[in-house]
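Checklist before submission:
- one chain only
- standard amino acids only
- sequence pasted in full

Submission:
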Amino acid sequence: MYDFIHIDEKWFYLTQKSQRVYLANNEPFPHRKGKSRTKIPKFMFMAAVARPRWGQDWQCEWDEKLGIFSFTDAVAARRTSKNRVQGTIETKPIKSVNQIATRAMLINYLIPAIKEKWPPHEGEKVIYIIQDNAKAHILQNDQEWQQHYKQDGFTLILTQQPANSPDCNIFDLEFFRSIQSLMHKKMPKTVEDLSGDVTEAYNELHAKTLSNVWMSLQYVGNEILKHKGDNNYQLPHNKKKILEDEGNLPEQVKAPRWAVNECKQLVDEWRANQ
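Returned file contents:
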């Protein structure tokens, strides 16, 4: 899985409807203002991660965080108000996150990030970019993408995760929830703070957390094999922390041979009936 990149999008809200805080004696309660509970400002972000790489003594050589990018525009204020003067640059969400916006994000932000941050390698490097089946995503045969997917020794292949299988995505498993938890601790007050705090939370999240999610993804793959492709299973809990402390945490999870054989037989039967 070291040649895989997972991407996904998520809404991040400026604040929660209710939030628990711990205050010292005589500390003033943090005041929040909003027009409506249903109109909380929000931005959509696209994040991209790969599997962290570890060296000797479990030292992180690369945390595999390629970046988190917001679907926003910098717009000058049209008129003066009590909050800002005319011409002040404001951060606004784009009108629609569609295939045009997604394609531009991949070409203008993700590809340069891969070329800049990916570890040195020899020869051609083939990287698979895993995404869900949202309508806003483009496919590998997209005409404009075909002009950019090969650059500087990299070949980037867009692939889709299985339908109705959110557990096959790193972000849906746990990663986005961890970022959101860290972001809300910073309690941003403006939309500009929101964009910066989400980026800070993404960068602050420990590489071990990301590495554990990649391990969970492998265990999820085993559960899918055991249930012959069905998503009617419980998320496995494999005591990764205990195994790590004992020095027994595997780098690669082995699939049960009986599950693999049963799935191969099922696929062969399906092909024979076509």
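Reviewer check: The beta strands are 4-13, 42-50, 53-54, 60-62, 65-70, 72-76, 89-93, 125-131, 150-151, 154-160.
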